[in-house]
Amino acid sequence: MNLMKFSTPVYKDQIQHNDTKVSLDIIQIFKFRNFCIIAHIDHGKSTLADRMLELTGTIKRLTKEDHHQVLDTLKVERERGITVIAQTATMIYKYQGQNYLLNLIDTPGHVDFTYQVSRSIRACEGALLVVDATKGIQAQTISNFYQAFDAISAKEGKNVIEVINHTIERVSPPFKEISQEEQSRLPLKAFLFDARFVASRGVSCLIKIMQGSLDLQKTRTLMSYHRSKRYDLFELGIVQPNMVNTSILTAGQVGYFLSNMKSVQDAHIGDTFYDEKYQRSSIEPFPGYSQPQAMVFAGIYPEDPDDYEDLEKSLQKLCLNDGSVSFNYESSAALGSGFRCGFLGMLHLDVFRQRLDDEYDMIAIITAPTVQYKCMIRGKDKEIKIVDNPLEAPAPEHIEQWYEAIMNATLITPAEYAKGVKTLCEEKRGIMKSQEFLNQSKVVHYTYEIPLSELVTDFFDKLKSISSGYASLDYEFNRFDEAEIVKVIFHLNGDPIDALTFLVHDSRAVDFGKRYCARLKELLPPQLFKIAIQCKIGGKVIAREEQYHFIELIILYSIKALRKDVTAKCYGGDITRKKKLLEKQKAGKKKMKARMLGQIPVDSEVFLGLLKQN
């Protein structure tokens, strides 16, 4: 067999493989291999997937003119060079004279998208761990070894065939002790591990057949166990990496189905689908997924208030593809009606914003992000309140104690950058828990406890800058600790702007206020009257004679008025003409100032600028 010979697949129930048509239903179940590729970000997962797709004849050989990373289909993925959503592809590969069905899932590598990885693993019997030998082990691929294998190059295609062969040898088939015929007689059970909205086609559900078989000739309807709803099937197939219509999916296979599922909320990740001819009580469902904990929260508002409903529909469709995003309705005096959304990190938030723009042409105002805090309310009950929106924070006199989230942070850096990394962690209020030297003291492995609010701002960018891009970071939630938290409110011409309200650690409050005031001064467009930007920081409560006094600090910046030369049209003559024009302009400014009352128009660019600053 010539493994370097490529051809285009046939989009029916047969697949073109090296000029030989292979019917899916003749491949035995013990020749199925379901595996995912996992690694740290930018270690070559998608490049390796490209070579596998080429060498198995699933896609034609890519040239310099072709788009590489074929499984990265989103515009944001191609522009940033990262994988955002897990993608699956089915390959047929001949090994030792036998055809094998390989189902590959390419997963994201950034910590913000770990939810995609966890649900992909549930559909696999094995995983291929990729380590870039030029970068070494990173924080998200820690293992008991450090040295990476140097006998493979996914970029050049060197020895990728050996990787495929070892995958077949080492990854177990979905079932070992039951034949294809026995499986086909069992009641159908399909596991939903992903879903996405396909334009003009509706909701595409990615499933793994865990038991029985799904045949359009015999089964035209499916029941959802968790939703208790009935869906009519009209298409069934595999992903290769395009959607390929087939007539049947057997036990162990990964594929998709299209149905009359209209609502994006109906696709419950982790759901179990079964044939409606069986009683629900006879079906044992698969355990679902636990919803990941949001780390970063931000308000999302339509730039045009009339686009509110369109924004809601866009959010629902995007959340179908990304179940880790949560959103609830909220309103703002400054921005109107919008949504409070929770994300797994700052990159997650920024990618979500870009996808709204790229995929739905929805330009939204994103308020500056915040993290989740807890506070204990004064009183006998000592009630604990969770606060992820600064506007919902109780008044300082009602709060007995604030608590902030503490994360366990794992950092790996070359030894020459260790001092700078250590200094950065200390500046971010980090407490070192352990320090370990790896690879003959060439690499340092740190474990720190760092507040989440310090990690989600500019920590990652500074870490990469200090280490010339070599250091890596991973973190997970540890606990909530007592903290001195204050509320920061920005004012324009004396009026508070609720969309610019933050909860900040007391030690950071003054610096935070100065930076944001300076940033607002740069971002706000000049007006025909002077704008006063104030940051009022109040919140540290001092008890004296049962009265509560507040420490208030005001940071003031001013934006100079944009001067219009109303006398430009005067070409000499009596000076009284110019005086009249100047007096008229002065009166107009007073009217404008009285009418606007500091409610300066703030568009999406201002909030986007603040988001980038954060």
From TrEMBL:
Write out the annotated subcellular location.
Mitochondrion inner membrane
- Swiss-Prot/TrEMBL keywords: GTP-binding, Hydrolase, Membrane, Mitochondrion, Mitochondrion inner membrane, Nucleotide-binding, Protein biosynthesis
Q: Report the GO molecular function annotations.
A: GTP binding; GTPase activity; mitochondrial ribosome binding
**GO CC terms of this entry:** mitochondrial inner membrane; mitochondrial matrix
EC number of the protein:
3.6.5.n1
Gene name in the database record: Contig4070.g4351
Bilayer topology annotation: Peripheral membrane protein
Which taxonomic lineage does the organism of this UniProt entry have?
Answer: Eukaryota, Sar, Alveolata, Ciliophora, Intramacronucleata
**CDD domains assigned:** EF4_III, lepA_C
- Which family is annotated? Belongs to the GTP-binding elongation factor family. LepA subfamily. Belongs to the TRAFAC class translation factor GTPase superfamily. Classic translation factor GTPase family. LepA subfamily.
User: Catalytic activity annotated for this protein?
Assistant: GTP + H2O = GDP + phosphate + H(+)
Is this entry keyworded Transmembrane helix? Answer: no
Query: What enzyme class is recorded for this protein?
Result: hydrolase
GO biological process: what's one of them? translation
Binding of GTP occurs at 39-46, 106-110
Record protein name field: Translation factor GUF1 homolog, mitochondrial
- Name where it mostly resides: mitochondrion
User: Function, please?
Assistant: Promotes mitochondrial protein synthesis. May act as a fidelity factor of the translation reaction, by catalyzing a one-codon backward translocation of tRNAs on improperly translocated ribosomes. Binds to mitochondrial ribosomes in a GTP-dependent manner.
